[in-house]
Amino acid sequence: MARAPLIGITGSQAQLPSGITQVSVKESYVTAVRQAGGIPVILAPRELTPVIDETLEHLDGVLLTGGKDVDPRHYGEPVWNETVQLEPERDALELPLVRAAFERDRPLLAICRGCQVLNVALGGSLWQDLPSQQPEALGHYQQAPRDAVTHDVLIVPGSQLAVVLDRFSREPLPANTFHHQAVRDVAPALAVSAQAVDGTIEAIEAPARRFFLGVQWHPEELLARPAHRRLFEAFVAAAARR
Q1: Catalytic one of 112, 115, 221, 228
Q2: Can you say whether the dihedral through the CA atoms of 219, 224, 225, 229 is positive or negative?
Q3: Is residue 74 annotated as part of the catalytic site, yes or no?
């Protein structure tokens, strides 16, 4: 029998009061991968470049998770203000991982921070702080529970995302929102596949790859809704075909 696909999930690290460094991911990411038929493998933040070939040789797909902010030096800017909180150890893991997965056409799903990492890794830039740089935009950090939907996402017809969502792409897609940054200049290899009603980019994709997709919302918190569950089902299915 063919084994279930191995999905590498990027983790975060934190210093505990005891002084121990802990690497973790939210359970909702693990649950989403398992429910879709994949085997989750947690990737610890570290400099990945020396072992990137070996790492990807063992993985059938890559899931980039949410978190803090990408260091703006990676797209040629200084830090905008005090709201920008960096995770350099995650940048060291995720930026080369995205580039290598892109070169190898390894299926990739990028969520929230992950969507931003995807764009920066391939040559794009970000709005560092939407409330101060785009004050006329919608509120993109909801106070409602994580499994509540608070604004609509408009899917670009004919996009890879539209194909994945099928009938759910024909109407505005209700989503949750927990971000203060967003894609600004889209990387040359990527295309916009969804926007909010205020024009904020909500999803990007690589049209030349089998499954290479970033979304700004958190579908792992919306698994009770079929449209969002389909993202993980399609991602794991693409990884299984690897």
Answers
A1: 112
A2: positive
A3: no
Cα separation, 49 vs 108, whole angstroms: 18
Phi, psi dihedral angles at 28 (to 5 degrees) = -65, -30
Bridge partners, 15 (sequence order) = 21
Please count the CA atoms within 13 angstroms of the CA of 131 that sit on its side-chain side.
11
Amino acid 1: pLDDT: 58
All domains in the chain, ordered by first residue: 6-240 (3.40.50.880)
pTM for the predicted model, two decimal places: 0.95
220 is catalytic: yes
Rounded distance between C-alpha atoms, residue 128 and residue 196, angstroms: 17
Highest mean pLDDT: which range of 9-18, 136-145, 174-183:
174-183
Distance CA 124, CA 116 (A): 9
218 is known as an active-site residue = yes
Q: Please give the structure tokens belonging to residue 144.
A: 């409602």
